[in-house]
Amino acid sequence: MEQATAERRSGRNETEDERADRMWTELIQEIRVAQMGVQILFGFLLTVVFTPTYADLGDTEQTIYIVTVVLGATATGALIGPVSLHRLVSGRRIKPRAVEWASRLTFVGLVLLLATTTSSLLLILRVATHDGYVPYLVTGVVMWYLACWFVLPWWVRRRYTSTSGD
Fold it and tell me: Which DSSP state fits 12?
């Protein structure tokens, strides 16, 4: 009976701590990619207010800019949060819980990065074109991001995940 159960089981044969170590390593690699994007975008956004043309922006564009900077700051915080979390709980023998919370922070960071990118695109296209098609173009890009970042992964997860999980 034990042999049959072992043969049917799929996935890795690892302890909870080994799984947490592996998942932490994978999560940190993922965060590096997202952090790079948000840090470049946020750094660029911080310089805009110091350009001469900032004063020429209309009230709506300045509001969009302020919202975008705040979104960028919150995305940066969420995506750097897992590093701080790991550092503060390291050695406390709670890595599985730390991985759960770091994963949640990363997801929130990705949602905030999506909002920051969307807001940035809206601002740039409004300033660059002043055309009525901007909301449609931004909506199309957001739909693409949603498909790439959330819909496809969700579909793959539902389609290919076995009951043993990863």
Answer: -
